[in-house]
């Protein structure tokens, strides 16, 4: 079968006690950053196991690279990994990978879950994982190149224009290996009880276990119950018409809508406007649907539909006063089709709230098309997406995304994209982002007066990094201020496969225009960077046209870089104050500027405002040329308290 582990070491001895982590680190190292969640994370590589630990390895297209902490445990059939609960729990989430079918499309396989009360079976699937090839990817591991006329790094060539034609190894660029599954255990287990996961049938890689004490189902006796309008909680019949009828009645009587415990089949988008819809909790109320092929493309270009809740389009005036809370959305999206609007939440929703949802297997968890204003997205879990986790697209203003947990997206986990109309006055605050398999943890594409604060971003894989601001994708310019404040990144500063250089944990990219807004980066911590901590870069064809000007870095901690603290591959300037760095693998500043190498020094200048400890900056002021894009990489030691 396709996809076996490539890096393995002997399994460790059983740990002395349960090891609880956040983003695979000691929680003390990331205190005050990221989302507050109900569950505790335990990495499989720290648990008791008869299997094989794989990794750590950050090489793209490998199982360890996409695991939390870049390490996991592979179990052959009959082997197990056993977790000791750190506190009382009645529900678990298992993040795993099983092989693809030889021809793609996925398989299913059982996993035994053993507790002191017996053994249950989870049915794992790889139907929502294993993508291959070039963007926008395919489910076929044996497919030829999707774009033979594109340059690829593997041969450093354009295959269609190369003689003799290069040999392309298949499957080409396998990715998106992992999925996760939740299981309510039906009773509460004590701290110190064990959960044993045993592979059956196929090799099974276990990344981690999340455990929590899920509360009782919520009940709202004053709301309009969808069961009274014919909704089927067994999931056998389509409940969409019944939910529509319940919404219409609730609006007429000025009441809320209640989704009780159950699985409700919905295979299209539910249109919402001026309505409150709440469930019994996202462990209990599940809105689940199949992806459905349309007979004719929709006006927006979609060729499929699927489960989701949509506001009216901005062209129709948008929706207002929509409040969605406390249920799960489970989609059926297995391939990326960019014209398909098969997202969990979509449309335009002003003066609205999205809270306490669990969204899985949709294309994008939440994709908002403005103009719209004042949406609050809080306390949600967004996992296993084919593309973004959330995107504020086109004229979204005055909106907040706070305390969300996002894992295993197939594109930017959280993005603001000011295409055609600028976003403004938006904030991404206290979110946790783990293992985006493509692009960035948080990406800001243009816009005004943006704040990115107190987030925790770990393990970006390729063609992006943890924090990003770029003049790209037709975005409006950056204006007003842009603030990155109090964020922590872990194991970022990734390798850019096309450029064949390392990025920074935070990176600024001038592609379509200069970046010259008021940009401040304060209080960030960049931990265990694969390459650089900070990067400013202009695309090569426009390096003499666009620059990155006047960025301020203050009160930054850099703990470990494989290469440099700062890499400058653009014209422009930046200032640094109280930026402390240790365990730096190469020169403190890799300064190439615009690659003109004039006698007076680089076209990128650095200003020392004092307090920059670690000796990383002084020798390179103000613009000493130190250009070496591919120095030896020195893996840093594990982060530790400062």
Question: Topology of this structure?
Answer:
Blueprint: E1 40-43, E2 48-49, E3 52-54, E4 72-75, E5 80-84, E6 89-97, E7 108-115, E8 118-125, E9 179-189, E10 194-199, E11 204-212, E12 224-225, H1 240-253, E13 257-259, E14 262-265, E15 269-271, E16 275-279, E17 285-288, E18 292-293, E19 304-305, E20 308-310, E21 319-320, E22 322-325, E23 328-330, E24 345-347, E25 349-350, E26 352-355, E27 358-360, E28 366-369, E29 372-373, E30 375-378, E31 381-383, E32 390-393, E33 396-397, E34 400-402, E35 405-407, E36 414-417, E37 427-429, E38 432-434, E39 442-445, E40 447-453, E41 456-458, E42 467-471, E43 478-485, E44 488-490, E45 495-496, E46 501-502, E47 504-510, E48 518-522, E49 525-529, E50 532-538, E51 547-561, E52 566-569, E53 571-584, E54 589-591, E55 604-608
Parallel strand pairs: 12-13, 13-16, 14-17, 15-20, 16-22, 17-23, 20-24, 21-25, 22-26, 23-27, 24-28, 26-30, 27-31, 28-32, 29-33, 30-34, 31-35, 32-36, 34-37, 35-38, 36-39, 37-40, 38-41, 39-42, 40-43, 41-44, 42-47, 43-48, 44-49, 47-50, 48-51, 49-51, 50-52, 51-53, 52-54, 53-55
Antiparallel strand pairs: 1-11, 2-5, 3-4, 4-11, 5-10, 6-9, 6-11, 7-8, 7-10, 18-19, 45-46
